[in-house]
Amino acid sequence: MKKLLLLGLFLLSQTCAFAQESQKTILINAGTQNLWERDFGYSPLVYKGSAIGLTLGYANVTEKKTDEVYLHYSKLALQSPYNAEMAATHASIITYTFYKAEWLPDKFTLGWSNNNALSLRNYEDAQNFSPRFDFHTSFGPALRYQTFFGNQQQWRFTSQAHWQVIGFLFSASYVTSPPEPFLHEQSTFNAFLQSIRLFQPFQQQDLGVLSQLFYQLPSRNEIGIGYRFHYTSLENAQHSQRSGGHYFFQLNFQL
Known about the structure:
This protein is mainly beta. 13% of the residues lie in helices and 63% in strands.
């Protein structure tokens, strides 16, 4: 009985120690997002606009590893130089995993990132092939810098970047708005397969930078501001591009 009690106390102490080493955070941010987008399958013109973007996220930080997940959503009214309108909806789930390497400077961590992003485009004047869309899943390396400062180290600055050049793309095609004779010639499944393409490195790419400044409250929660930049270039049957900047205010809640 005594041995079982000692074993139980030992396991409890290890569990508590592990819980202390792992810091879990829920985050939410919102702010102005400026975006431009171009879909050569419809028009070579650039469509621009601004709206509010919203992001929810989760982070799990240990001594040697950091995992982050961000869910971003925005809906924008974009215009071409000739005042043609396009309603754009963007949704993405991007993950980061950073590792502390002994050969790196103390404030840097290195890892990888994965982005799963959907862009849906409704053109006001389109007669065919609207809405248009593309969805891509991409992977690539990521680098992060983080530093603490202030009398009590209550300020925290982080900046991280990713560059993803491998993955696959599913884009607008005859599957979404097929001319009637098209599906008489082949099945929907074959049309679907024709719409998927693997990334050709450096021909398709997704890159981004995320910089944030936080202040830690007495409750250990944080408030902060940040800026997120992203650029995506995709090529299937047609070429599409988009880029944007998101200025935001963020709250971090410690679990």
